[in-house]
Amino acid sequence: MAIGEAYDLFVKFYPHHFQSSQILRTVSIREKTSEARQQRFEAVEHRCIGIVSGIIRDGLAQGDLVLPMWISPEQFTFGLWALSSGAHAIMAGKPLENLGIERPYDTLYANYHIMLDGVGWQPLSHVWDYEQTRARIRQEVFRDAYRQLELA
Prior knowledge:
- With 152 residues, the protein is mainly α.
- It has one domain.
- Helices cover 71% and strands 0% of the residues.
- The protein has helices spanning 2-13, 15-24, 27-30, 35-62, 73-91, 104-118, 130-140, 143-151.
- Helix 1 (2-13) packs across helix 2 (15-24), helix 4 (35-62) crosses helix 5 (73-91) and helix 7 crosses helix 8 (143-151).
- The longest helix has 28 residues, at 35-62.
- The chain is globular and about 50 Å long.
């Protein structure tokens, strides 16, 4: 959850960097960059995927979740990444209230719970108060960042 909070903060503090990273993933832009820059970009992505995949592997080893046989930890990580990046890209556009989505971040978190509950990641969202956990992470890990957001 803390990694997700960090990603949310990155998008909130650096929306132009987030949008630039989306643009840099397009083939038409990426093929115009130097090989060295492409390798650096891929190394950073590989590191991020590796961290989250490692958390998933730990959960698998502890019996906290069960992935289908046909999906690897990296593929599951991709699904989480796609959900998060896609939601942030959509939220960066026009307000979503007109589409019936009053609280986009809460909707994103609900979709994380659906995905994680779907692989049985313990504790399930109806058993554990993840909003309280999120509040604790914000207070204990990202207190200064959230204070900055309140002042903005």
